[in-house]
Design brief:
The structure holds 2 protein chains of 2 kinds. By secondary structure, chain A is of the alpha+beta class. Chain A is built from 8 helices and 19 strands. Chain B contains 11 helices and no strands. Chain B is globular and about 70 Å long. Classes of the chains: A alpha+beta, B mainly alpha. Chain A: This is ABC transporter ATP-binding protein.
Chain lengths: 340, 259
């Protein structure tokens, strides 16, 4: 049961005649922190909106905590949503924003005051209660939005691109904050993002989406180390991706044999740092070098196509135009079950 | 040197051009003489006081106030939902509706007045007061829609969704988070509509009938018979009323943001 705390069964969503999500199956555990990861237009935001009840599915069902909520109005679902733009009420103070939902529930007086005050305290905004929301910084506005949803004690809290509007320093801070709030409250959290770093850092489990369907579901480690398809591999930073056919790599130069037997897979993918540079049966010309602190990044023009390699910066540098030997070690590659 | 004087001098000329006639009218209303004249002969408040004793002025003032307040109110009742629908939903004819709604601003009042009289009031036999009310409502509607639309477009639609997810109904979200945030726009639309309706001449001229007149029409009629400074006095009073309203609106609402 608790593995199916929130379940999407054959969920299909469409805007008019345009299908956004097709036959999506997904089960989310109670208390899980799940990321919906994918490029814009992959259906992740649409899926989130349908869980919130802001969009009615054209097919399939949604169950939350044992109840079919497919047709339940958004205001009865006990699902919270922190909008990308925060969507605070500009005419209300911080306190009144957070109190909004509780007041609608009929809460008044000291109980209301206590709940709102605690909500603000939990996001570190106690001293901002009487401020108008447009006066706050982006990070503060997001905390208000978070508190506003959390005081409602939602069964599921949805977050739309929670970190994308924040600068780098605040992003790290907010990431920690979200994890803390989630651990303290035990709320089931689903957030939508197009940023793999964000998803890997925050989530217990990642759902990678493409063209309205799930491409892969797994832990951050699984997604990062064992992408199942070229799409996922590309998304999590494998820059050298090749199809495999008849035991050979499919490349610009035709089929290439590698040292060592190729596994029976649809494709192989190497991160730049899995490419070994300086020795090996293959060779290419250096077309780009850039220093990246601890490592040096190379762009090689090779008979296989463009290869990106990243090696320890302490090793002697290869100059532009130099010919360098390299190898694509099969042991360091991710095996792709699907190519595409 | 001449270059530096050019701009201030131009400004001064424009101000004289704009405010001069108004100052003359104001000066004429304090005249002690019996005819409308400038420069005024002597100084007295008798014409200002006389304005309040002319019965037809009182009746037509009440009529004008009724049309301006009632008409603007009716226009807002229709205009707010219409603006909301046009700004939030992609409706099939929303551009057409926008154009049709703006028509009373673009089409000359004389034509609107004549058309209403010839093809609406006369054939159907609509009572004069009702005809005036409907006409003023239609004339104010474009301002209501434009000003309210402008402030709706400045408001993020997702705050309504946020309100719904916090337990509000769709309608409740409109009253709880949309209306309070476009309050300034609505009040501005009301003031603009009120002033437009109150100062309206051509349409009212066609539609006014026996015993039912708006104040500007009554003033025109009065001037054709009597040529004393009470007209100047009344004009000054009305001008100060308008100035007062607009000044207060700017002071408290930031009126110029919406218009």
């Amino acid at each position: 049961m608790s593995d199916r705390f929130l379940a999407l069964d054959k969920l299909s969503l469409a805007y008019g005649n345009t299908v956004a999500v097709r036959d999506l199956d997904l089960e989310i555990r109670k208390g899980e922190l799940l990321a919906l990861l994918g490029p814009s237009g992959c259906g992740k935001t649409t899926t989130m909106r349908s869980i919130a009840g802001l969009m009615t599915p054209v097919g399939g069902r949604i169950h939350l905590d044992g109840t079919d909520i497919t047709r339940m109005p958004a205001n009865k679902r006990a699902v919270g949503l922190v909008f990308q733009s925060y969507a605070l009420f500009p005419h209300l103070s911080v306190f009144e924003n957070v109190a909004f939902g509780l007041k609608l529930k009929g809460m008044r007086g000291t109980e209301l005051e206590t709940r709102v005050t605690n909500g603000l305290k939990s996001v570190g905004l106690s001293s901002f209660a009487n401020r108008k929301t447009p006066e706050l910084s982006g990070g503060q506005q997001q905390r208000v939005a978070l508190a506003r949803s959390m005081v409602m004690e939602p069964k599921v809290l949805l977050l739309d691109e929670p970190l994308s509007n924040l600068d780098a320093r605040l992003r790290l801070e907010m990431r920690t904050e979200l994890q803390r709030v989630q651990k303290e409250s035990g709320v089931t959290m689903i957030f939508v993002t197009h940023d793999q770093v964000e998803a890997l850092a925050l989530a217990d489990r990642i759902v990678v989406m493409k063209n309205g369907a799930i491409e892969q579901i797994g832990t951050p480690e699984a997604i990062y180390n064992h992408p199942v398809s070229a799409f996922v591999a590309d998304f999590v930073g494998f820059e050298n991706i090749f199809a495999v056919r008849h035991g050979r790599l499919v490349t610009a130069a035709g089929g290439v044999m590698l040292s060592g037997a190729l596994p029976d897979v649809a494709g192989l993918a190497w991160r730049p740092r899995s490419v070994s540079l300086g020795s090996g049966p293959l060779s290419g010309t250096v077309r780009g070098v850039s220093f990246a602190g601890g490592t040096r990044e190379y762009v090689l023009e090779t008979p296989l196509g463009t290869i990106k390699a990243e090696v320890d910066a302490a090793l002697p540098a290869h100059g532009l135009g130099q010919t360098v030997a390299f190898d694509l070690p099969v042991a360091g590659a991710a095996s792709l079950r699907r190519f595409g | 040197m001449t270059r530096r004087l050019f701009a201030p001098l131009t400004l001064l000329l424009v101000l004289v051009f704009l405010i001069g006639p108004f100052l003359i009218i104001v000066a004429a209303s304090f005249s002690a003489g019996d005819t409308l004249a400038f420069p005024p002969q002597g100084l007295s408040f008798k014409w200002i006081l006389k304005v309040f004793t002319v019965e037809s002025f009182r009746d037509s003032f009440v009529m004008s106030m009724f049309l301006a307040i009632g008409g603007t109110f009716a226009a807002l009742i229709m205009g707010i939902p219409a603006s909301y629908a046009m700004s939030r939903y992609r409706l099939p004819f929303s551009e057409t509706v926008r154009t049709v709604v703006s028509a009373p601003i673009i089409v000359p009042g004389i034509i609107v007045g004549l058309a209403l009289l010839r093809y609406f009031v006369v054939p159907i036999g609509v009572p004069i007061t009702l005809a005036l009310f409907l006409a003023h409502t239609a004339l104010v509607l474009p301002y209501a829609v434009r000003v309210v639309s402008a402030s709706l477009n400045n408001l993020r639609p997702d705050i309504e969704e946020a309100a719904v997810l916090l337990g509000s109904s769709r309608l409740g979200a409109f009253f709880r988070v949309v209306l309070p945030n476009i309050r300034g726009g609505i009040l501005s639309a009301f003031i603009l509509g009120f002033v437009t309706s109150f100062n309206q001449v051509p349409v009212s001229l066609f539609l006014s009938g026996p015993g039912v007149r708006t104040l500007p029409i009554d003033m025109l009629g009065y001037m054709e018979i009597v040529f004393d400074p009470s007209i100047a006095a009344l004009s000054s009073l009305l001008a100060f009323l308008s100035i007062g309203i607009v000044f207060a609106a700017e002071r408290f609402l930031g009126f110029s943001r919406y218009v």
